[in-house]
Amino acid sequence: MKTIFTKKTDVEQKWHIIDADGLVVGRLASQVAKVLRGKNKPIFTPNTDTGDFVIIVNADKARFTGNKLEQKTYYHHSGYTGGIKKEVAKDIMEVNPERILVSAIRGMLPKNRLGRQQLSKLKVYRGPDHPHKAQNPETLNLNIQ
Q1: I want to staple 55 with a disulfide (CB 3.0 to 4.6 A). Which of 17, 127, 141, 143 is the partner?
Q2: What is the mean pLDDT of residues 8-19?
Q3: 38 — alpha (psi -120 to 50), left (phi > 0) or beta?
Q4: Per-residue pLDDT tens for 92-128?
């Protein structure tokens, strides 16, 4: 029996669309990360980008469980001494809800060149419209609440 390694030329990448209306951020992120990596395919290889493109619409209607909307904080650093910034999830959801989903999904992908390549296949939009109609995305039904 031979071990078969998937090459980049062997991968057929599809486009999927997910409606985030009413879905929990973390549960949605874990399922999307699985599709971006290609772990839902039988040809999955850890060192090859076997994943598909994912479009997430209605990012502003995704939700948190419990008190996370008021209590969850996001940190970033400017690079200067004392330059740490912190924001609450509620403030980010008002201004830029796409950033919350991208941040959650980025944390579930590999921290290397492959992870950055897989993250580039993620497209997140605030409302129900997106500019990827020409790719004929298929609706991806996730069994999450």
Answers
A1: 17
A2: 93
A3: left
A4: 999 999 999 999 999 999 999 999 999 999 999 999 9
